Amino acid sequence: MNDHKKGLVLTAIGGLALSFDVPLVRLGHGEMWSTVVLRSTATFAAAIILWLLVRRFGSTRPVLIPGKAGLAAGFCYGISTIAFLGAVFNTATANVVFIVAFTPMYAAVLGWLVLKERPSPSTLVTMLVMFFGVGLIVSGGLAGGHIFGDILAATASFLLALAITLSRAARIDMGFVPLVATIIPATIGLSFVGASSLAGTGGFSVADPIWVMFDGAIMMPLAFWCLATGPKYLSGPEVGMFYLLETILAPIWVWLIFSEIPSSRTLLGGSILVLALIGYSAWQMRRVERLRARAVASQAI
């Protein structure tokens, strides 16, 4: 198998695994903070085991948190996990994944402001179209009474983009940072669960914990590893296309399992987002191919 096919397989597996995140969380039928604790603890434990195995048997010795930049990015990843799971519990699944799909555009804006990377005209046009799509979804949240969940999803998206920007600015390997940063939501969630238990108003409550543990320990590390490894063999736009698998498939899984039908505004706004991202990624892939062709032609001369 050549490198390009290897990259396609890895990113396809990663995108598919990521699409099961929300359905598995919801199958746990748990209270929000209990779910945060269980999922995050499982991911953290899996990350530590994987890190130890890589250091023991691999040729490299990766660092869990590389310096201050790693701490800053890890904080963003950790809080984004809380915002994302809060959104899952406070709005429709389609709203969550469609709004979080705006992450690449947030990253482009932050790259412009922080890294002085001026977006191309195609990126700016895509941003405007996606802003309109997100606006439709959020307006549906205002009408449906779940605006808080939509705001949490937007917050998670922004924090993810900020973490990505910090990683790019530092130019160091942060492969384990998103996984070990789950210690932050695990700790915060545990404090809420403990407080509710002491107050006699609740405590740890997850009816089917196996689903949440499977998600945290297996599916999330698998998704992050595959999607982090894919860029070694594929261009950025190609990898971005596979991130769309979660955006498209997660609402389908939830519809099949829970019979949750997205609102008309969510479907319209989500369709605009997906089509804009597909068009943008396709345009970028053509651009990369043209640049490669020019490089080959110049070398031949």
Question: Please, could you describe this protein's structure?
Answer:
This protein has 301 residues and is mainly alpha-helical. It has one domain. Helix content is 81%, strand content 0%. The chain contains 13 helices and no strands. The protein has helices at residues 3-19, 21-27, 32-57, 67-90, 93-100, 103-114, 121-144, 147-170, 177-180, 183-198, 209-229, 236-258, 264-300. Helix 2 runs antiparallel to helix 11 (209-229), helix 3 packs across helix 11 (209-229) and helix 12 (236-258) runs antiparallel to helix 13. It is globular and about 75 Å long. The chain starts with a helix and ends with a helix.
